[in-house]
Structures are given as C-alpha cells and as structure tokens.
Amino acid sequence: MTPTPRQVVVTGLGATTPLGGDVPSTWEGLLSGRSGARRLTEDWVEQLPVHIAAPLAVEPPLGRVEARTLDRSQQMALVAAREAWAHAGSPEVDSERLAVCVASGIGGVLTLLNQHDVLRERGARRVSPHVVPMLMPNGPASTVGLAFGAKAGVHAPVSACASGSEAIALALDIIRAGRADIVIAGGTEAAIAALPIAGFAQMQALSRRNDAPETASRPFDKARDGFLLGEGAAVIVVEAAEHAQARGARVLGTLAGAGISSDAYHVAATDPTGAGAARAIRAALRSASLEPEDVIHVNAHATSTPTGDVAESIALRLALGSALDSIAVTSTKSMTGHLLGAAGALEAVVTLLSLRERVVPATRNLDALDDEIALDVVSIDNRELGTGAGLSNSFGFGGHDVCLAFTV
Amino acid sequence: MSQTDILAGLAAILEEVAGVDPADVTADKTFIDDLDVDSLSMVEVVVAAEEKFGVKIPDEDVKTLKTVGDAVSYIQRAGVAA
C-alpha cells in the first residue's frame, strides 16, 4: 500500500488585478460584477486593430529604486507575494524549507521592448545593466525568492496561459515530495504593449469590441469574439498541513490535487476534441482522490474565444460525465480579462474564495449561451454554493493543460 | 568643477539610481559596503556620471573607484584633461 501523501493546504492569498490592488477589492469586484476593461489611451494604440485591455486597478506601490530594477511583472509579483505572506501570518519558516514557484507566460516583455528602444535611440552604453534580470522569465520568481529568503529552490514553470496553474501544481508536488514545507506560488503578467497586442490580434485571439470594452470578454456567449488582454499577479502560500498546524496558522483550504497534460495537437490551436484538457481534469481528480460527483464548482479557463470555450465544455463533459449537470461553472475572465501567465493563479484564489464564501461570481456578458456549450454557467446573479470540491482549469499556447482541485 | 559640486552631483545620481540618502554621501564612504550600491547599479551610476560631468570612465577604471572620494577625484582629473 502506498503511503498517504502529505496533505497540502493554502494559508495565504495575494493579488493585484484589473479589479483591485489586493484580494479583498478583487473579490468585491467579482461579486459586484465590475469590469476591469477600458479603452487604452497610449499613443501607440491607434495603429492597432485592438484598442482595449484590462490594466491594473492600482499601480504597484513600490519605491523608485524597485521601479528601476524590477520589470512590471516582477513588481506585481512582489505586491501579490507580500499580501499573501502577510495573510498567512508572516510564517516563521526555516529558509531552507521555503521554496518559490512564480511563473510568467511571457516574462519581462515591457523591459525588452523599452530597452530595445534605448539601444536603438541612445546606444549600447545607455542600456540598463538590470535588463537581463528584468526580462528573464524566472525574474519574478527570483524577486520573490530574494524578498523572502527562500533557499529550497526558486522555480518558474513557463507554460503560456497555464503558467500560474502549473506553478501551483509544482508547489503541490514539492511539498508532497517533502522538498519544502512552504511554497510561495503563483503567476504574474505585464504584457499590455503594442507588440503583444499586435501579435495576439494577428492570431485572431483578441476581441475587437473597441467601442464597448466592458462587454468584450464574454465567455460562453454566442457573440464572443476573442479574449480581453489583462495584466496582474496572484500568489498563494502553499503549506504542508502539519507545518501549518504546528504554527497555528489559519487554514483557508486544501490544495487537494493537480493534473497536468499536453495536447500534442498544435502549437497554438485548441484541440477541438478536448481530449488533452480532459486528461488534465481526470488527473487532478485522481491526484485529489476525488470522484466527479464530489465536484460542485468549476472556474473555467474560458477566455471568450470561439473555439476554446467549446473545447473546454467538451473536455469537462468527457472528464466529469453526467456529474457535470449539477456543477456550477463560471468564467471570471468576463470581469478580469485574461491575465495570461497570472490567470491560473488568480483563478485559484477565486476558486478557493468561492468555496470558502460559498458563492460563485456570475459570468458577465453572457446574453445568450452558445448552443455548443453544454454547461450550467452561472450568469446574471451570483449563485450560492454548497459543500464540495472546486476545480480551476488553465490551458496555454503550446498545448498545456492544467487543472487544480481545491476543497475547504 | 569643484570637488563640492562633483560630490553634490554624485549624491543626486546615487539618490536617483540606488535610493541613497544624499546626507550619507561623503568622500570616505565606499560604494558597495557603505552605501549598498550593487555592481549593477554601479554601472548605472557611472553612466549617469559620464553624462552629467561630460567625462569618460572606462570599465577598467571603474574597478579602482572604491570610495566616493575616489570617484570625485577621478572625475575632477578627467574633467581637467578633457
């Protein structure tokens, strides 16, 4: 008989998002159905087909030196990590038992673009000596690791829009394997700039509802036309249950399991059969020792793209069968936009809060459910939730599928 | 340019680049140990000083600038030479 794996709990939450500068304001925004979308006013916007995004609600409140030496994605990760750490009671932990898993989908692209301009316009001597640590995709993990003195390993599992979820899945593995007692885990993304927007637009991935930004992100709706690019960071403190108990920590919930798979279908297109995503969902249930009937809620990846939302609906049916009929599904991207590498981490926070507070924030802008979506999507009004498990899906370009399972 | 002016100029750069309190910037202080300016930020200080004082500070000379006083003297000499 295999030994029971260490139980892994969540003891702290942190976030900075298009809805608020911390978790309480973000949660309040979700419950009240606020949109983080707005029309961009930068001078580079007019050349683009997409003029809308969901920027941070609150600029990172950091000092001038931090602002010079940290990419925006690192600054946001630091803000979210500080909130999560304080929320966890600023744990006293052996630094050699503290790890970090903080990922970004794209890395320091704003720094890359700005410093490339500096190079071309002012020459090599004016390029910032901080540019490499600011643009490397493990930069945010390193920033957080330095801030909290983590010596058990600093990781940045990059998997595009699944990065934040994969970071949390890795944190679960690290604690189960006994390599750390606490892992600061999450995702961050700051990519609202002309080049990423132009690139996503060329892939036909972005909504072009330039005249009505608040209605652009409309997961599962018949008239959806792509995602709304957001930015932000979310971080959770993942802890071995016995460690949390020994220090008298407040336990917010259990990170019960995680499943990871890959499509091997196409570098960017969604596998329309949903097979890969279904494998990740099944793997998460196995990892959590849960049955489909135990699941009461799914925070869907659902980015509001025409093909992705349908494939996710098919995947959920494949993995959960008839149990899906009584599962309340939502996509909070209808309010936050798509935070790319931070999305899964933010939705992990939201899934846990939904289970704890027993309420599912409604999917906004769902005027007419797509005929091909066979899900009980919570819309118009938030819905009360009973007791059970919640899943959070994240999928990324590259064919990455990650599903996290939480219980409270 | 007087040593006092150069010191004040360096203090302003150090404040901007590394968040050093100008009151802490005196000739006897070392950049790395006393003022906590790391090697990367030191590069920024040097580039800003070159621009502000109109001098060239080659990379091999940067290593010899341990204290604020070293930098003030170097910049004064380089300024005269230029």
UniProtKB/TrEMBL annotation, chain A:
<protein>
    <submittedName>
        <fullName>Beta-ketoacyl-[acyl-carrier-protein] synthase II</fullName>
    </submittedName>
</protein>
<comment type="similarity">
    <text>Belongs to the thiolase-like superfamily. Beta-ketoacyl-ACP synthases family.</text>
</comment>
<dbReference type="GO" id="GO:0005829">
    <property type="term" value="C:cytosol"/>
</dbReference>
<dbReference type="GO" id="GO:0006633">
    <property type="term" value="P:fatty acid biosynthetic process"/>
</dbReference>
<dbReference type="InterPro" id="IPR014031">
    <property type="entry name" value="Ketoacyl_synth_C"/>
</dbReference>
<keyword id="KW-0808">Transferase</keyword>
<dbReference type="GO" id="GO:0004315">
    <property type="term" value="F:3-oxoacyl-[acyl-carrier-protein] synthase activity"/>
</dbReference>
<dbReference type="Pfam" id="PF00109">
    <property type="entry name" value="ketoacyl-synt"/>
</dbReference>
<dbReference type="InterPro" id="IPR000794">
    <property type="entry name" value="Beta-ketoacyl_synthase"/>
</dbReference>
<dbReference type="InterPro" id="IPR016039">
    <property type="entry name" value="Thiolase-like"/>
</dbReference>
<dbReference type="Pfam" id="PF02801">
    <property type="entry name" value="Ketoacyl-synt_C"/>
</dbReference>
<feature type="domain" description="Ketosynthase family 3 (KS3)">
    <location>
        <begin position="5"/>
        <end position="408"/>
    </location>
</feature>
<dbReference type="InterPro" id="IPR014030">
    <property type="entry name" value="Ketoacyl_synth_N"/>
</dbReference>
<dbReference type="InterPro" id="IPR020841">
    <property type="entry name" value="PKS_Beta-ketoAc_synthase_dom"/>
</dbReference>
From TrEMBL, chain B:
<feature type="modified residue" description="O-(pantetheine 4'-phosphoryl)serine">
    <location>
        <position position="39"/>
    </location>
</feature>
<keyword id="KW-0444">Lipid biosynthesis</keyword>
<dbReference type="InterPro" id="IPR036736">
    <property type="entry name" value="ACP-like_sf"/>
</dbReference>
<keyword id="KW-0963">Cytoplasm</keyword>
<dbReference type="Pfam" id="PF00550">
    <property type="entry name" value="PP-binding"/>
</dbReference>
<dbReference type="InterPro" id="IPR009081">
    <property type="entry name" value="PP-bd_ACP"/>
</dbReference>
<feature type="domain" description="Carrier">
    <location>
        <begin position="4"/>
        <end position="79"/>
    </location>
</feature>
<keyword id="KW-0443">Lipid metabolism</keyword>
<comment type="function">
    <text>Carrier of the growing fatty acid chain in fatty acid biosynthesis.</text>
</comment>
<dbReference type="GO" id="GO:0000035">
    <property type="term" value="F:acyl binding"/>
</dbReference>
<dbReference type="GO" id="GO:0005829">
    <property type="term" value="C:cytosol"/>
</dbReference>
<keyword id="KW-0276">Fatty acid metabolism</keyword>
<comment type="similarity">
    <text>Belongs to the acyl carrier protein (ACP) family.</text>
</comment>
<feature type="domain" description="EAL">
    <location>
        <begin position="1"/>
        <end position="82"/>
    </location>
</feature>
<dbReference type="GO" id="GO:0009245">
    <property type="term" value="P:lipid A biosynthetic process"/>
</dbReference>
<dbReference type="GO" id="GO:0000036">
    <property type="term" value="F:acyl carrier activity"/>
</dbReference>
<keyword id="KW-0596">Phosphopantetheine</keyword>
<dbReference type="InterPro" id="IPR003231">
    <property type="entry name" value="ACP"/>
</dbReference>
<keyword id="KW-0597">Phosphoprotein</keyword>
<keyword id="KW-0275">Fatty acid biosynthesis</keyword>
<comment type="pathway">
    <text>Lipid metabolism; fatty acid biosynthesis.</text>
</comment>
<dbReference type="GO" id="GO:0016020">
    <property type="term" value="C:membrane"/>
</dbReference>
